[in-house]
Amino acid sequence: MPDTYVFPGGNLSPSDSSLDWIKLYENFGFCKQSFDDLQAAENIPNVLTQHETNCLPKYLSFRICAIRETFEECGILLGRPKINSADTTVSNWASFIGGKELILWQHKVHDDSEQFLKMCSHFEFCPDVWALKNWSHWITPPSYLTSKFNTIFFLTTLNQIPTVHKDEREIQDLMWTTPEQCIEMNNQQKVLLPVPQFYEMSRLKTISDVESLSKFATERAKFGFETYWPNRVKTNEAMYTILPGDDLYKKNDENNSEITHVDHLPESRTKNRILHRSKYSNVIEIENFKPKCNHIAPSAYFNKGC
Question: Is 180 a member of any domain?
Fold first, then answer.
């Protein structure tokens, strides 16, 4: 998504699903049961249940993918050293590993995803999969005719800001920011946010500090994901994104690439939607809406009756 600010991430690679990762973790003292709590107890999207023979389960391979891609793009490596790594699998805060020698490996991993496992073995650390908390699931609307995404978002918290090193071939800019600052920069047309990022930043904005966020994300993770597959509706005044829980929301038909056109949106009691006046002017409208999966609603332009 060129010229937009997005979260680090990318496509699942076959190497992310290799059973050789289990051998690496076993060498660090982890058994297969060490990963049991990573799977949500309920509300598991199809993309995380489509397991393949002789491959890691998706709830694990998606985490390895997220850690690898974040390293490739940003130079941030969420990993645990071998020493005392298996003392606990409880990880409210992410651990990360730095060093100039990793920059060379960053380029290697970018060019060949199989190098990630080799790098972990070489430096004797393992991806900190326990630090990634289940957060949300977004699918691109069928009416969006360019890139298509079926994306799991994980959330992690760090107790200090690591050094970053951007991949010049993919990344124009890297930014640490608060949700409030990010939304304000979007309003000032300094930052362009796609719908999922705008919505999630508005959701994160409701939590006052990173310690509270870390605790909430850890406790909420077992409740899984609600799938956000937006409807796009165009009226005479503006474009709307209609989201699950809204009275006007209808599950998408992946074969329908047409945007719904109406003169005006009908009245509705429950609202979970985004009004797009322009690509930079977006307003979240929340009314009588409570998210599923024990989640939180985003900060809204107006919010009543919840």
Answer: no
Nearest to 212 by CA among 266, 155, 167: 155
Nearest to 15 by CA among 54, 65, 74, 86: 65
Q: Does residue 211 sit in the same domain as residue 143?
A: no
Give residue-wise pLDDT tens across range 177-193: 999 999 999 999 999 99
Asked if residue 9 lies in contact with residue 69, where contact means CB atoms within 8 angstroms, the answer is yes
Please tell me the total count of domains within the chain: 2
Q: Alpha-carbon distance 278 to 193, whole Å? A: 12
Is 137 in contact with 153 (CB distance < 8 Å)? Answer: yes
Q: In the structure encoding, which two tokens stand for residue 247, read together? A: 């009275």
Residues 26, 161 within the same domain: yes
Residue 3 counted as domain residue: no
Domain boundary among 175, 203, 230: 175
The DSSP result for 73-124, as a single string, is HH--EEEEESTTTTS----SS--EE--THHHHHHHHHHH-TTHHHHHHHHHT
pLDDT band at 289 (very low <50, low <70, confident <90, very high): very high
One domain, residues 207 and 267: yes
Decide if pLDDT at 270 tops 80: yes
Least-confidence region, from 30-34, 39-43, 242-246: 30-34
Which DSSP string corresponds to 192-233?
---HHHHHHHHHHTTS-SHHHHHHHHHHHGGG---EE--EEE
Q: How far apart are CA 291 and CA 281, in angstroms?
A: 24
Residue ranges making up the domain that contains 36: 14-175
Beta bridge mates, 304: 287
Backbone angles phi and psi of 138, in degrees to 5: -125, 140
**pLDDT at residue 305, as a whole number:** 36
Sequence-distant (6+) residues with CB within 8 A of 185 are 177, 191
Q: Can you read off the two tokens belonging to residue 207?
A: 């939590």
